Give the backbone structure.
Amino acid sequence: MKDIETGNVARYCRPGNLEDGIPRPSAFEKRTGEKFLSCYWLEFFEKESEKANVIEVKKFMAKSYNLKETGSFAVLNIKQSKKILEEASLEISYREKGLPHCGIFYDANDLLIAKLTAESLAKSVQNNYPIKDLAELASQTISQTEKTGDSQNPH
Amino acid sequence: MTQLLKYQYKNYPEYPNLGDYDGAKTLLRQDYSTDIPQLSQNLADSPRYRYEVYDNNNLERPKRESIEIDKLDKLSSFEKILEYVINLIELKDNYLFNRIRELKELSDADEDCIISLESLKSMFLFVGKIGNFSRPHSITVSENGLFYMEWERDNNNSITLRFVRDYFLDYVIFKASSHIKNKRIIFNGSMSVMDMIDYLNDLNIKIHRQV
């Protein structure tokens, strides 16, 4: 498994993980029996903006996963999140798990990791994308494309 | 009776006097067409109402029963657990129970997330034993169905609890250093719910009063 050192990852947060729309530490708990926290590497999609990349993650996940409209995607910067955890003498690594899928690996107390990860996210609230907003943005993009197509086509 | 009368006050303005016991009895007879003892049993079985008869001239309230592990152990459904604790935990507002019901509904709508009743029992034991506490910053449920509670004053003062089975919990406590400015001490680990209450007292952290 290859380590990922730069870029950003998106993690799907269930509605029950959110309070007032903000992901809390429960969003970053490893599933029972799993050795890593599942997430998606945004730079894989090579879109023009972070939000556009998150929309691609949503589309990718929706193929095999029932995403809830009231859920959200938390975006974590790989370097920043590692730095925040290093300050607490904790080590995590981001590794490829069949891109765009990747995993956050760590051995430390998972509740502490979850708390610090949620805290780092709370410091940059713009990196939380409610799925409802993504759906609106995606439909706007489609309607804009249709309008452009209409103007180019006189018929 | 207290809750019933509150319900009455809201829905039956013709009985505006909350202390009007005779009026309440009439109301009960009229609306339920049943004798009081039978109604008492019905209400006792209902999760919404608690029926207590007390002497109108003696305003001393009946003492609340304390939450007990033996009784929690015997409960095997979400509704039964909630029904048991709802009258034992005194709160300033309905946030806790409303939020827990909301989380249950979200969990029911999500086939990949099933609420852990063991975690729920541990959380209620903690809440029931610690007494009148300030409103948590958040209550959430993880994908594994475990309940989380957080109290947060600022970056350097917070408590995060994750309730697991057997009345245990995992915890992360941030406490501001008394000696180094803008530094925090991090406590984390796992212990029983009852030990955590002692531990919070030892650390002089008071979540059971308004900060």
